[in-house]
Specification:
By secondary structure, the chain is α/β, with parallel strands linked by helices. Helices cover 41% and strands 15% of the residues. Strand 5, helix 5 and strand 6 form a beta-alpha-beta unit. The termini are close together.
Length: 289
């Protein structure tokens, strides 16, 4: 079973692996650059070498790379649209280069892909906004050849944010030529806030994921409890068992037979401090037993 959390790469990207080891998890999510700054320069070879060397000496098996928070592929503004695409190019290039080194050094680990928020509908009509996201994804894939994937994340649907339904995410993928390089990350809090009732209708939610997105295309689940009610469209994470989903539902999600191969990654408020992060990861492991 693959259980993990978002970890810091502050001070050097190899520190993300060190933090995975510190908290004794086999799965991590990390950002190779600052989350609120445009990524415009490729990651240096020497940084990748340090990262892969650290990985080779660790128990980390799955790595999800999260894109910067500024990305909005639905923008009509040419500069912002381009900056969003280039940030994904930098990250996808990083993933490809790391994956090649992993293969070369025969390390038993895997890069899951680049997770990113599709953006929000600002200047363009709804259908054109969806098409704009698909066009942006294809452009990035054309720029960075290889096998690594771009993974569209579900959103809570706050305001004009796109990605509130599985059907919306499917539309984005359907508009891409290289569909085999596009997958998804499902966030339990976002989807609950978007109206998918994990608490009272778990089997239906999983069935909808299976039929609309395809379970093979879901590369990770962000396992977060919710401070907000189902259908609230508000993105507010809670620590495991302390929100509207609760321990029983979290436990059912972790143990569902159709999700047993999907890596689970925490993004809960407890991760902000080392002591509470350690307790949260232990709680995750207990719920998964």
């Amino acid at each position: 079973m693959y259980l993990g959390a978002h970890v810091s790469s502050s001070g050097g990207i190899e520190n993300a692996i060190k933090n995975g080891e510190k908290y004794q998890i086999n799965t991590i999510q990390m950002m190779p650059t600052a989350p609120m700054r445009w990524a415009t320069k490729p990651i240096l070879d020497e940084e990748i070498e340090k990262f892969v060397n650290e990985l080779g000496n660790s128990n980390v098996k799955k790595i999800l790379i999260h894109g910067i928070y500024l990305t909005n592929l639905a923008r009509e503004d040419k500069q912002l649209f381009h900056l969003g695409k280039m940030g994904l190019v930098i990250y996808l290039d990083f993933a490809e280069r790391v994956a090649k080194e992993i293969e070369k050094k025969k390390i038993d680990s895997e890069i899951l892909g680049i997770c990113f928020h599709p953006g929000s509908q600002k200047e363009l009509p709804y259908e054109e906004s969806i098409e704009r996201v698909s066009k942006g994804i294809q452009w990035v894939l054309d720029e960075v050849k290889g096998k690594q994937k771009l993974l569209i994340e579900t959103t809570a649907g706050t305001g004009t944010n796109l990605g509130r339904s599985f059907e919306e995410l499917k539309k984005m993928r359907d508009g891409v030529k290289d569909k085999e390089r596009v997958g998804f990350v499902v966030d339990t809090q976002h989807t609950y806030a978007a109206g998918y009732d994990w608490v009272n209708d778990l089997e239906t939610v999983i069935s909808q994921i299976e039929k609309t997105l395809g379970l093979k295309n879901v590369k990770s689940i962000h396992l977060n409890d919710s401070k907000m009610d189902c259908g609230s469209n508000k993105d507010r994470h809670a620590d495991l068992g302390e929100g509207k989903l609760g321990e029983e539902t979290i436990r059912k999600i972790l143990k569902h037979p159709k999700l047993k191969k999907v890596p689970f990654i925490l993004e809960t408020p407890a991760l902000k401090a080392s002591a509470t992060m350690e307790r949260e990861i232990e709680r995750l492991k207990e719920l998964a037993k």
